[in-house]
Design a protein that fits this description.
This is Interleukin-13 receptor subunit alpha-1-like. Pfam families: IL6Ra-bind. It is found in: Membrane. This protein has a five-stranded antiparallel sheet with strand order 11-10-13-14-15. The chain has a four-stranded antiparallel sheet with strand order 4-3-6-7, with no helix packed on it. It is mostly beta strands. 5% of the residues lie in helices and 42% in strands. The relative contact order is 0.14. The chain has two domains: 10-96, Sandwich (Immunoglobulin-like); 103-191, Immunoglobulins (Immunoglobulin-like), CATH 2.60.40.10.
């Protein structure tokens, strides 16, 4: 006869949140589960009923991703369930969501003449004071990393030529403590105190003379 779904079928559930509360979850399926068994992910906050993660692709048994309808705060508890044949085989709660949030990479990384480095964040509905940054420097002698709690950094080492890129995460104790870093920003190559980004910006600002024929 048909096997009754049980909680040993689902293992290693992992969820990451992006942008306007977009959720991406994956899980491993035990070999004891039937090959054709489908699993459906449901979610809710403390005020709502459980809703199906509607963007789950047909046939993708170990993955679901969707926008969380009715979930408007990154600080609320989120309840998750996975069902097989309408039987709950996994359930948990997540609080706060920011602990599992992946930011977009920083943009507009710029290196000034004094090796002061600045960058910007793609707008997001939490305070920038909640962010922690890591900078990766590559030189002819190798590479090293530095950290910053603000979207700027003053490089004290005297380097004339290097490449730098930046990534970010939610890292302040009163906001959350995500261990998930964003992807790296675009790299900026620096030589003789002036970055390629600055040179491109100066070229764009330079007026092109008008020549009549």
């Amino acid at each position: 006869g048909a096997r009754i779904p049980n909680k040993s079928w689902i293992q290693n559930v992992s969820c990451i949140f992006y942008d306007e509360i977009y959720m991406n979850c994956t899980w491993d399926i035990s070999e004891s589960a039937p090959q054709k068994q489908q699993f459906v992910l449901y979610y809710k906050n403390h005020k709502k009923r459980f809703a199906k993660c509607k963007s789950q692709r047909s046939g993708d048994r170990g993955h679901a991703s969707c926008y969380l309808q009715g979930v408007t705060s990154y600080y609320n508890i989120l309840y998750l369930r996975i069902k097989a044949s309408k039987i709950i085989v996994f359930e948990t709660d997540i609080e706060p969501l920011l602990d599992f949030y992946k930011l977009r990479p920083p943009i507009n990384v710029t290196v000034l003449k004094n090796n002061a480095i600045t960058w910007e964040n793609i707008p997001f509905k939490i305070f920038e004071e909640c962010f922690t940054y890591q900078l990766n420097f590559t030189t002819s002698n190798g590479w090293f990393t530095e950290t910053s709690d603000w979207n700027n950094y003053n490089l004290e080492k005297k380097l004339n030529t290097f490449t730098v890129k930046v990534r970010s995460r939610v890292g302040e104790f009163y906001c959350g403590d995500s261990q998930i870093w964003s992807d790296w920003s675009e790299s900026v190559n620096v030589g003789k105190g002036s970055s390629s980004v600055e040179r491109r910006r100066r070229m764009r600002r330079k007026r092109i003379p008008f020549h009549s024929e």
